[in-house]
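PROTEIN DATA CARD
Card holder: Motility protein A
Chain length: 265
Origin: Vallitalea longa
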Amino acid sequence: MDLATIGGLIAGIFFLVTAILQKGSLSTFADPSSIMITIGGTFAATLIAYPLTDFIKSFKALSLVFKSKILNEGDIIKKIIELSNIARKEGLLALEEAAESIDDEFMKKGILLIVDGTDPELVRNILETELVFIEGRHKSVRGFWEKIGEFGPAWGMIGTLIGLINMLKTMNDPSTIGGSMSVALITTLYGSLLANFIALPIANKMKVISESEILLKEVSIEGLLSIQAGENPRVIEEKLKAFLAPSLREEISKEHDVEEGEING
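Structure generated from the sequence above:
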């Protein structure tokens, strides 16, 4: 589980509820009609904007923001160095057996292309084309949540207008003005919360996850092509570390030094 997502949700709810309770009660901010207008209206508009299959797929992708990252750049580089050592000692065909233990379908596909003797340029083209489509799918899912972030405040404003119309119709009865005005403002609150507490943070987390995954796949492509070219594992490691931030490069170098020390010791 991604503790940042869970922690953010819990902290956000805590601060909201605490702030409300300090000045009033939660029941003041609970209004079924406002929920129907804002939440229901936003998802109805999103249904119109997207095909049903994309709507369902984007909702299922919500689980990604609750999952912790399985692999990082360091893990990928270690795996590639391991594969390059196998290739240098036993030949490229030995990578086929090594590929069976890899869960990453993208890397496995690249390895099998190399084992099949595919031209390096064609291997790069195939993997980069797949990468473009992966990035496109990520962008589509992210766009879905960004669209909800756009529709939420708009439907909150629609609810506010409905509340104001109802208020104006009953201006001859001053006792109803406060209630109608309150309902009108609650829809704006719901719309803002839906956008800024749920939809846009989800879209941003998906963007971060997508960028990380794309980077890992770019590292994989360069690593696999270096293996295919028969480059030295140490050279491959230095080349792939160019993709990383300085702090990560140092971390990997330290781990590498420790591992070499353990082997030599």
